Amino acid sequence: MSSQYNYHYEPASSMASRRIIEEDSYQTTPQATDTDTIPLYGQVTSEDLSSTFDPEIIDMQLKEEMLRRKVALQESKGAIVEVTCTSEVSEAVQFARKNHIKFVTKAGGHSTTGSSASHGGLVISLTKMRHVVTDPASKTVCVQGGAIWDDVNESTAPYGLAVVGSTASHTGVAGPTLGGGFGWLTGRYGLIADNLLSVRMVLADGTIVEASDESHQDLFWAVRGAGQAFGIVTELVFRAHDLAAPVYGGTLIFTVDRLPGILEFAKRFDEQQDEDSGLFFGLAAPSAADRTAILVLPFYNGSQEKADEFFAPLLSLSPSMNKTSMMSYKELNRVANVDPVPEGRKCFSGTKVYMPLDKHLVNDLWEHFDAIMEKYPRSRHSVLMFELIPYGKTIEVPIDATACADRGRYYNVAILLCWYDPGHDAAMHTYLRALLSKIKKSDCYAGQKENVQAYANFAGERP
Ligand SMILES: Cc1cc2nc3c(=O)[nH]c(=O)nc-3n(C[C@H](O)[C@H](O)[C@H](O)COP(=O)(O)OP(=O)(O)OC[C@H]3O[C@@H](n4cnc5c(N)ncnc54)[C@H](O)[C@@H]3O)c2cc1C
């Protein structure tokens, strides 16, 4: 870390707080890759870990048979080291290398590819590293590598500041940032990575470095977009922005007959490119509704009057439920959170679309999605969302300024399917691919002409 940002969290004695636990099961996406194609460098055993880590603090039940890669991460047991500071991360990396043990890093646990889970290897979990320090004088915020956006909002809110973070506050900070990252404030302030000032990280040989515009510039270029591949980030320093007043947001639900009006509003939204706005809309099956409904999450960083004026054409479509209001940014950032379904199974993927959307495509997606919900009533946490964030600030940054090439006049689509019965795994993955494929065959699909086919952090499944 350059001396400019002088925040470090290194507890004097950290060994006592380090624990190794059995791998937990909450992941957004099961991995479906064939085990046989994955080279394994070694499997973790209790003895291996005891030789480096204090045996008294080992309470894991390591399953020796471990690697059943089939479909569900829940079936794959490995070991987790819960590190508490940068030097422990370095120690864990060096241990894994020395013993030829495959390892991964975990922060918020929202990976859409399962890349923060290991099948028999070591998970270096940063979930105990969630400190955040806000410096109101310099308007900078230093965040430990395992923090989630809720932690950041808690720290910045008392100073009337906010950092550009994910739209969902329960995702990790590091994962989204290292892949580029977007959120409700992206329209005004750019991608999450564009607001990153420096990182402290542990490289593959255990070396600890600080990367910024002043030091290790090439590494700093790389972590902003391709960061998950270059090391373990233990601290991130962000630029913060003034955001003292409440913002407008919440949820609206419409019946499907309002879809043409909503698509018309989305077209208008795209044409306006109002930097203070945001609009997520798509398909969801709330339990109160008989059929798949249209879920809309509006956002406006401005007064109630301005928000009312901006969203007037949408609100005039008479939503069947309107739970929007002025609220703190901290609250707003929780609106898009997806409740974890611990025993549930999930798959996630996304792609890119241009506006205006073809109404035949969206009708077709509705019919397909609705049929899935009809057939599998316990899949009702599933959503298909078009995520409209104004792109002006994102495309202002030259494509080669960072490793994030995901800058264009297009928008993300995210598809999350949730279910419970392992017997439905194959069907659900097939449905997800079918929905993606419909979008990719349409004229709205942006990936054909652009640098990217999907946001790297949404690339959970391919058609
Ligand atoms: C419900 C949901 C909502 C989402 N909303 C948004 C959104 O609004 N905006 C957006 O940009 N993205 C969003 N995403 C995508 C999100 O950015 C990625 O899933 C992201 O990788 C999650 O990061 P994490 O730390 O929570 O997950 P993890 O599973 O812990 O990590 C994800 C990846 O990042 C790596 N990683 C994590 N921490 C570190 C670290 N400290 N150093 C190095 N590598 C690390 C992991 O090894 C893994 O490869 C959403 C995803 C979900 C499931």
Total DSSP helices:
12
Shape: globular
Distance between the termini: 41 Å
Named CATH topology of the largest domain: Vanillyl-alcohol Oxidase, Chain A, domain 3
Cofactor: FAD
Protein name: FAD-binding PCMH-type domain-containing protein
InterPro entries: FAD-bd_PCMH, FAD-bd_PCMH-like_sf, FAD-bd_PCMH_sub1, FAD-bd_PCMH_sub2, FAD-linked_Oxidoreductase, Oxid_FAD_bind_N
Keywords: FAD, Flavoprotein, Oxidoreductase
Task: Give a brief description.
The protein is an alpha+beta fold. The chain is 25% helix and 22% strand.
Describe the overall structure.
There is one protein chain. This protein is of the alpha+beta class and 463 residues long. The chain has three domains: 66-125, Uridine Diphospho-n-acetylenolpyruvylglucosamine Reductase, domain 2; 132-242, Uridine Diphospho-n-acetylenolpyruvylglucosamine Reductase, domain 3 (2-Layer Sandwich), CATH 3.30.465.10; 248-458, 3-Layer(aba) Sandwich (Vanillyl-alcohol Oxidase, Chain A, domain 3). The protein has helices spanning 46-52, 86-98, 149-156, 174-178, 186-189, 217-226, 259-272, 304-315, 329-332, 359-375, 392-396, 425-440; strands at residues 19-22, 79-82, 103-106, 122-125, 132-135, 140-144, 161-162, 196-202, 208-212, 232-239, 241-242, 247-254, 277-284, 293-300, 321-327, 345-353, 383-388, 411-419. The strands form four sheets. A seven-stranded antiparallel beta sheet has the order 15-12-14-13-17-18-16. Strands 5-6-10-8-9 form a five-stranded antiparallel beta sheet. Strand 8 and strand 9 (208-212) form a beta hairpin. Helix 10 (359-375) runs antiparallel to helix 12. Mean pLDDT is 84; it is low at 1-6, 8-43 and 50-75. Residues 28, 104-112, 115-116, 126, 145, 166-168, 171-172, 174-176, 178-179, 181-183, 228, 232-233, 338, 348, 457 line the site of flavin-adenine dinucleotide. Its cofactor is FAD.
